[in-house]
Each structure stands twice: as C-alpha cells, then as structure tokens.
Inverse folding.
C-alpha cells in the first residue's frame, strides 16, 4: 500500500522519520495520522491518547508475531551455511531481522514525539515486561549477557571437538579478536547507559517544579522525550554493532536467542497477569 501524498507531505512538514521502504506499513500510517490530529502534551485529549495507545498496541502485537516468524526462519536456515546460496539466504534473513528492529524503534519514536508518557507507561506490555524496563525498554547491556551465555553454553557442548582442533564457527567459537571487541563494546555501552540514567535522574530531581504552574510542562516532556530517544538509540545501536562484529551464522544465533528471550518474557508475563488479575 502506498501512502497518500498528503500524508507524506504531513510527515515531512512535521519532520517525521522517513519509512523504511517506498511503501509504508499500516501501523506507520495510523500513527502518522494520529500525529496529525493529536496535539502534543499537555494538550493531549483522553480519547485521542487512548487511540494512540491502541494503535501502537496493534502494531506491537503484529511486530512480535512477525518477529516470531523471523525467529522460525532463522532457526530453519542452513547452519553452517555450506553453499553461496546458503550464505546469501542467511545474510538476507539477518538483514531482514535487523530491519524489523529498526522499524520498531522508528514507529516507537513517533509515539514518543506525540506523548512520551505513553511509552513509559507502556500499557501494551505485561507487568513482568514493565518490571524489567530501563527507560521504557530493555537494558542495552542485556545483549552482552546474552552473548556470553550463548557462547558459554555452545562452547561447553563442543569442548571435545574444540580440543581436537575442530571448529564449527558458531557463537561458541568466537575468536579472541571477537571477544576483545565484544568486551570493548560492552564497556562503551555501560558508560553510555550510565550517562543516560544520570540524565533521567536529573529530570526526576526536578519533579518539584511541576507544582509551579509557571513552569513549562511541555518543555519538560520534550526533555524526557530526548532521554527516551537516546535510550532507544543505544538499544538499537547495541544490536547493530554486535551483529556487525559477528559472522552471519553467529549473528543469526544471537538474534534467535534475543527473540526467544523477548517472546518468552512476554509469554510468562501474559500467563502471570492472567492468573493474578
């Protein structure tokens, strides 16, 4: 479906990020429409805010379902890839999965620009998911724990082969250079994560200013929005940089583990909420 010209013009006028491809997904169109008709905080109306929540919830549920399909495709891909065609197929699936994550953060940024408090409340998430949130999403350093865990499990399962000099090129077969780069990237991410946490703390320290009606509440929401944007940028860039330093096979295994964790936590959260509602 091609986006109507007037919608594209509206998106450009409001400085919305461009779509991933020449066509726009329906969730992107829905949220663009809401941004056209919904005033930024604090002029947000209750009914329109609820529409925005429901729109993103539909997008998120569809996005998770597509992530599940991508995880299945990655699982079914030939590993190790034996032919050039296998390599191309695996690389294509990895790129497709990365584009899927990019689309999520693109659409989420539209919601944040409209009403940043909505993404912090995250009504589309389960209570368990929200308990694990760091600034409206997963903590970037979680990705490194996932890499180390997967590498350790795979290494232990094939230690006899490794001692015999047999290498299979999976996550359990990371080279010393790869381990060094992962460690360096982890240190960089920890520093950035701490810096963003400090920014949020400074914003929260100014909570008493909300009692003064002369304070510009909208400006404060914009500051909070910039903090959330930095957090999401760090989340996405962490995945991108990790995938770049891995081989296609290793990247596929990392993305499978990440998707399995995200989908698994949501499943546990849904069950927990059903039994405690």
């Amino acid at each position: 479906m091609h986006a109507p010209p007037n919608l594209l013009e509206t998106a450009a006028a409001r400085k919305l990020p461009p779509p991933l491809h020449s066509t726009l997904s329906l969730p992107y169109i829905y949220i663009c429409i809401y941004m056209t008709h919904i005033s930024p905080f604090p002029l947000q109306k209750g009914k329109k805010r609820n529409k925005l929540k429901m729109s993103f919830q539909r997008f998120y549920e569809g996005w998770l379902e597509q992530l599940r399909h991508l995880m299945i495709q990655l699982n079914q891909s030939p590993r190790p890839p034996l032919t050039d065609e296998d390599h191309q197929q695996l690389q294509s699936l990895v790129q497709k999965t990365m584009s899927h994550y990019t689309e999520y953060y693109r659409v989420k940024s539209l919601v944040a620009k409209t009403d940043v408090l909505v993404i912090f409340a995250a009504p589309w998430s389960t209570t368990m998911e929200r308990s694990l949130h760091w600034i409206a999403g997963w903590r970037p350093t979680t990705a490194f724990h996932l890499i180390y865990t997967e590498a350790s499990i795979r290494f232990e399962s094939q230690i006899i082969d490794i001692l015999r000099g047999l290498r299979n090129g999976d996550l359990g077969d990371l080279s010393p250079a790869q381990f060094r780069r992962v460690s360096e990237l982890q240190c960089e991410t920890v520093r950035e994560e701490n810096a963003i946490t400090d920014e949020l703390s400074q914003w929260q320290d100014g909570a008493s200013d909300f009692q003064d009606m002369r304070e510009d509440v909208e400006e404060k929401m914009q500051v909070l929005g910039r903090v959330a944007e930095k957090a999401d940028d760090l989340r996405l860039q962490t995945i991108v940089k990790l995938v770049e330093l891995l081989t296609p096979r290793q990247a596929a295994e990392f993305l499978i583990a990440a998707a399995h964790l995200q989908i698994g936590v949501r499943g546990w959260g849904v069950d927990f909420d059903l039994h405690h509602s």
Remarks:
- The two ends are 39 Å apart (CA to CA).
- Residues 46-76 form the longest helix (31 residues).
- Residues 38-275 form one domain.
- DSSP finds eleven helices and no strands in the chain.
